[in-house]
Backbone:
């Protein structure tokens, strides 16, 4: 079986496709993958480190950008020509598309060559590219049932959000979502990895991107108050992923902390997948944006969340946050109110065990560890007719 994958721009679209690929490999030994991405996007490094073949095509925005879309037409046309060449060489049985401008050429090329197309929608609400290209797709796998309203009747199938296999392992599941019973072991490894105090609650703060600088600034502005506790409450410890842009500044700020406070503040520039699994496994509460991955990763670890939707990401993140808040799995803060409200909201949850446990239970009720396996089963089902025909040609 040969599967072409196309997606790029953010990890929210790349990681679930890689997770689906892992589940497909687990159930279909010998499957071949080829990822079609953009020359300058972050997906190339992520995909290559995952061991998948990677090729690039040119593309550009088409939906919602006016004159800019017209200027993209020549680039998209050239990209379709490039993608047609890739399709002729690779002879895929199916295309899995997850969104982003780069998917336009690959999707159009596969449609022109009669290759069946499946879309995985990472966010709850589709953006312009997926809305346009969904008319070429056989099936759209969606993270929650609410997403079905954006597609033709019967086209959408709810699978949940496919989580990276290393995170599944840390939460106690295999790549197909079956329990392994190893979650407690990984939590202990995480405590040792970060040098945490088992008697203190742990706050995980995800400020690791250019779009999360306001989270970094708000945390540092209120760091002493959060670390030492509030109104007689005990203190906490913090794992803070800062991202590259603010790392030097945050190191300087951390160096000014007293030894007592520095012992409970653990800033890092970036965490690779295994380290992120440790962080999620040990956290009692998380603060971060509301990108697509929050729909899968936080529920997988029964994590209550304080979500701060990025105000310049159209309404994707607001819709994601609203979904988790409506299920009592999260609280939501507006970006412009972070400076004033972050410490008090953190304290209201971190030191209220009953409220946090209710949110953790609500979050865990949303977990779908079998999401990647369900999506992989959709790919197999859709690809069967083409697979039989293509195998005849290849032999």
Residues:
């Amino acid at each position: 079986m040969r599967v072409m994958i196309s997606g790029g721009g953010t990890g929210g679209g790349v990681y679930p496709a890689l997770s689906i690929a892992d589940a497909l490999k687990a159930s279909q030994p010998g499957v071949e993958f080829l990822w079609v991405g953009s020359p300058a996007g972050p997906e190339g490094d992520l995909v290559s480190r995952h061991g998948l073949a990677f090729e690039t095509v040119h593309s550009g925005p088409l939906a919602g950008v006016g004159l800019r879309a017209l200027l993209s037409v020549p680039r998209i046309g050239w990209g379709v020509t490039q993608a047609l060449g890739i399709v002729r060489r690779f002879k895929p049985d199916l295309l899995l598309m997850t969104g982003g401008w780069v998917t336009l050429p690959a999707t159009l090329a596969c449609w022109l060559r009669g290759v069946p197309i499946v879309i995985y929608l990472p966010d709850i609400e589709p953006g312009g590219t997926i809305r346009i290209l969904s008319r070429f797709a056989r099936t759209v796998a969606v993270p929650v049932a609410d997403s079905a309203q954006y597609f033709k009747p019967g086209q959408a199938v709810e699978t949940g959000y496919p989580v990276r296999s290393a995170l599944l392992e840390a939460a106690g599941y295999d790549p197909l979502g079956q329990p392994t019973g190893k979650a407690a072991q990984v939590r202990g490894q995480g405590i040792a990895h970060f040098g945490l105090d088992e008697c203190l609650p742990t706050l995980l703060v995800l400020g690791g991107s250019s779009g999360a600088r306001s989270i970094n600034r708000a945390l540092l502005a209120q760091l002493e108050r959060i670390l030492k506790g509030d109104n007689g409450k005990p203190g906490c410890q913090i794992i803070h992923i800062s991202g590259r842009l603010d790392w030097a500044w945050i190191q300087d700020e951390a160096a000014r902390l007293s030894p007592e406070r520095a012992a409970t503040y653990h800033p890092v520039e970036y965490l690779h997948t295994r380290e992120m699994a440790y962080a999620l496994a040990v956290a009692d509460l998380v603060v971060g944006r509301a990108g697509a991955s929050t729909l899968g990763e936080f529920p997988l670890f029964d994590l209550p969340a304080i979500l701060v939707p990025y105000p310049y990401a159209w309404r994707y993140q607001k819709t994601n946050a609203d979904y988790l808040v409506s299920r009592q799995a999260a609280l939501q803060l507006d970006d412009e109110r972070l400076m004033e409200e972050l410490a008090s909201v953190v304290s209201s949850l971190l030191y209220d065990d009953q409220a946090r446990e209710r949110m953790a239970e609500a979050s865990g009720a949303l977990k779908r560890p079998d999401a990647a396996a369900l999506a992989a089963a959709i790919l197999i089902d859709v690809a069967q007719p083409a697979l039989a025909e293509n195998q005849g040609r290849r032999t």
Summary: The two ends are 13 Å apart (CA to CA). The first strand starts at residue 2 and ends at 6. The mean pLDDT is 89. The chain is about 50% helix and 15% strand.
